[in-house]
């Protein structure tokens, strides 16, 4: 059932053949993970990406004396570190689960074989990466174009449950504001 949900997600980008579904059923590994678990830490070489079925996660980087949240993921999204995944080099990012989660992992090494055996998978992979790049660009533009209140409203319009799963200081760092500003904006809501 959960794999079917994932296949439905992929079908939005390109129709999956039964053979591709069967093969992916073998290479995707289901993981039930707990809140606070790190899927990867800075200093490691990424070995896999994940598809989040249930739960949420954040990517963050360690800064002197604090952490800065750079991304949030929610159900039906592909998770991977932005630095190091494609180049198979050490990443400077961490991915932490914000709640108990159900994931499917796909090893980095399985992707070229999937594409070789099923060229349609390249279209799916490309579409998912392009979507994520567009979202990253939109976030970057929002940080420059929108004021603090507009960024707050936009984020919680898109992910209303985020305040229940993430620490206020992490949300504030993602939005490029102080925790006090976020607290003030929450009070106005």
Portion of residues within helices:
40-55%
Strand content: 15-25%
Write down how many β-strands occur, each being a DSSP E stretch of 2 or more residues: 8
Counting H and I runs of at least 4 residues, what is the number of helices? 8
Spell the H/E element sequence: HHEEEEEEEEHHHHHH
Gross geometry: globular
Terminus-to-terminus distance:
38 Å
Structural class, judged by helices and strands? alpha+beta
Strand order of the largest sheet: 1-8-3-6
Poorly predicted spans: none
Question: What does the largest sheet look like?
Answer: 4 strands, antiparallel
The whole-angstrom Rg is: 17 Å
SSE layout:
Elements: H1 2-11, H2 18-27, E1 29-33, E2 38-40, E3 48-54, E4 57-63, E5 66-73, E6 77-79, E7 93-97, E8 101-107, H3 110-117, H4 120-145, H5 148-158, H6 162-165, H7 168-175, H8 179-188
Antiparallel strand pairs: 1-8, 2-7, 3-6, 3-8, 4-5, 4-7
Helix pairs in contact: 7-8
Structure description:
The longest helix has 26 residues. The protein is globular, with a radius of gyration of 17 Å. It starts with a helix and ends with a helix. With 189 residues, it is α+β, with helices and mostly antiparallel strands. Strands 1-8-3-6 form a four-stranded antiparallel beta sheet. A four-stranded antiparallel beta sheet has the order 2-7-4-5. Helix 7 packs across helix 8. The model has no long low-confidence stretch (mean pLDDT 90). It is built from eight helices and eight strands; from the N terminus they run ααββββββββαααααα. Strand 4 and strand 5 form a beta hairpin.
């Amino acid at each position: 059932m959960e794999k079917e949900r994932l296949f439905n997600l992929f079908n939005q980008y390109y129709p999956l053949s039964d053979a591709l579904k069967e093969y992916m059923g073998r290479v995707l590994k289901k993981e039930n993970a707990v809140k606070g678990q790190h899927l990867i830490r800075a200093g490691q070489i990424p070995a896999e990406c994940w598809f989040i079925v249930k739960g949420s996660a954040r990517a963050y980087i360690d800064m002197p004396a604090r952490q800065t949240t750079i991304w949030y993921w929610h159900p039906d999204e592909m998770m991977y570190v932005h630095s190091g995944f494609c180049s198979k080099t050490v990443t400077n990012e961490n991915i932490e689960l914000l709640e108990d989660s159900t994931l499917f992992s796909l090893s980095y090494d399985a992707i070229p074989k999937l594409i070789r055996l099923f060229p349609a998978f390249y279209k799916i992979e490309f579409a998912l990466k392009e979507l994520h790049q567009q979202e990253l660009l939109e976030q970057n533009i929002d940080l420059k174009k929108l004021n603090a209140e507009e960024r707050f409203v936009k984020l919680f319009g898109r992910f209303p449950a985020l305040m229940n799963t993430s620490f206020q200081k992490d949300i504030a760092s993602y939005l490029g504001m102080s925790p006090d500003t976020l607290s003030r904006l929450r009070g106005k809501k």
